[in-house]
Amino acid sequence: xxxxxxxxxxxxxxxxxxxxxxxxxxxxxxxxxxxxxxxxxxxxxxxxxxxxxxxxxxxxxxxxxxxxxxxxxxxxxxxxxxxxxxxxxxxxxxxxxxxxxxxxxxxxxxxxxxxxxxxxxxxxxxxxxxxxxxxxxxxxxxxxxxxxxxxxxxxxxxxxxxxxxxxxxxxxxxxxxxxxxxxxxxxxxxxxxxxxxxxxxxxxxxxxxxxxxxxxxxxxxxxxxxxxxxxxxxxxxxxxxxx
Length: 243
What we know:
- The protein is built from 11 helices and 9 strands.
- With 243 residues, it is an alpha/beta fold.
- This is Delta(3)-Delta(2)-enoyl-CoA isomerase.
């Protein structure tokens, strides 16, 4: 599950659980995240930001395949249908983040794999601890193709073709310092606490600008035309300048 807390001008969305929780994305967790993002959007004002963090050794280990298997009644085809259902549900989380009227920051405090990595990359900024955790798109190793919105986000957010290749076609497990070099994340920090502290500093710096959230969201959408096309979103021109 997840919790939502506001401290000053910053919303903190925290994926919660015991120390061994992998924060796998099943319909329950996806619904919880979407509910939190809806509250953030409804409570947004000029000069707010969102930071997403996670408890334990995982940021998120992707879709909950164990849930799909256990809920399928032993039918492989039904398990695949349930996986497709999660893919569809999670697409709305990505849409929510791309449309959120404020800066967004992911503080990756543990492993981020598959859909868990995409969750992080759907934020404007990604900060990561260097002492533990990897970024990993596991689909090629598992024999699965990528949903169209996965590849759209990776292509749009990562400017280096060799980095896209290594992540999607090689299933490379990337640690924080290398992830900075490859352009997958913005910065690496000594441990989870330092990563969160850096995220807070960045959030406070951004909120001081008091940007109009609606304008910010529309600029973000216009920046990533492939993503909004795949998600079915539209960008609209907005002028609120004092002219």
